[in-house]
Amino acid sequence: MLEYNEIKEKKVILFDNEPYEVLESHVFRKQQRKPVNATKMRNLISGRIMEHSFHASDKAEEAELTERSITFLYVNKGEYWFTEANDPSKRFKMTEDEIGEKTKYLKENSPVTMLMFEDIKIGIKVPIKMEFKIKEAPPGIKGDSSRGGMKQIVLENGMVINAPLFVTDTDTVIINTDSGEYVERK
User: Fold this and answer.
1) Could you tell me if 135 and 169 are in contact, meaning their C-beta atoms sit under 8 angstroms apart?
2) This prediction's pTM
């Protein structure tokens, strides 16, 4: 059980018997009153976002999420096809709504982790750092530091990110999947 002040960002709790991911939390005290933790949470099943205030006497149970290793195969007509890592004959599909914003980091035949709550697929988790080949990178012009020594590049998955001027279109870069930012050149 989590105390009211332990309910922080990235925690997954049970609220009304459904799993919620805490997106924001702020513990504060109004004048002479008891402290309150104002949170913004996302329902992992429906995707609905709600706000709730936990008081000093409130407690929340941490949700039990199970993880399964899977492999992303391909996307076809908005359907994302996966297979179980240990048994390639077991294929299944997920929609973009089920996966969420992580779809932009999926690469064919890449390993990912599926998150489940009581046999319900609630999403996937990709590695924090992933490698991508550069599809398009304009040449870096010497002395062009008006944008802080950065330029926009296009990755193999179509994402546009900022990268240093020395990166060329023959390079492979590592991206942080939490922030979507350039980490290093490989």
Assistant:
1) yes
2) 0.73
